[in-house]
Write a structure and sequence with these properties.
It is a single chain. It is built from six helices and six strands, in the order αβαββααβαββα. A three-stranded mixed beta sheet has the order 1-2-3. Strand 4, helix 5 and strand 5 form a beta-alpha-beta unit. With about 130 residues, it is of the alpha/beta class.
Length: about 130
C-alpha cells in the first residue's frame, strides 16, 4: 500500500508577496482573493507568513501602511511541510499548531499549499492561496 504524501493532495497555486511588498498591497491582495494570510517570499524562498491580525496590530501601532513592508511584519516561525512528507505529518502539524493550512516546500522553495480540505478529501480541494 502506497503512503499518501503531501504532493498528492496539495494545491499547486499559492498566493505570496515579495518581502518588499507594502502593507497596503498585502491588505488589497487579501481582500481581492478573500484570504486572511499570505506567504512572504524572496525569489520563491519562504521567509514567513503575514496574516490579517498582523495588519491590524501594525495599524494599532500606528505603522504607515504605505511604508511598512512585508518583511517588517513577517512571522519568521512559520510552520511548513515538505512535498514528500506524509499526509499524516501535515495533519499532525496543522493540529498541533492550530492551523488550517500549511505552505508546501520542495528544496526550500514554495511549491504549493495544503489545507484540511485537501487532506480530508484528497483531490477535492480547489486552487487557493495560503489564506
Amino acid at each position: 500500500m502506497d503512503i499518501l504524501v503531501v504532493r498528492d493532495v496539495m494545491t499547486g497555486a499559492s498566493i505570496h508577496v515579495d518581502r518588499q511588498a507594502p502593507m497596503v498591497d498585502i491588505a488589497r491582495l487579501m481582500r481581492e482573493h478573500g484570504i486572511d494570510d499570505v506567504l512572504v517570499t524572496d525569489e520563491d524562498k519562504l521567509l514567513g507568513v503575514v496574516n490579517a491580525r498582523d495588519l491590524v496590530l501594525a495599524l494599532a501601532d500606528d505603522l504607515d501602511p504605505h511604508n511598512t513592508i512585508a518583511e517588517d511584519l513577517v512571522k519568521q516561525d512559520v510552520v511548513a511541510v515538505h512535498a514528500d512528507d506524509g499526509v499524516s505529518e501535515a495533519m499532525r502539524l496543522m493540529r498541533s499548531h492550530a492551523l488550517h493550512r500549511l505552505p508546501v516546500l520542495e528544496a526550500e522553495r514554495v511549491v504549493g499549499v495544503v489545507t484540511w480540505i485537501d487532506v480530508d478529501q484528497p483531490g477535492g480541494g480547489a486552487p487557493r492561496g495560503v489564506g
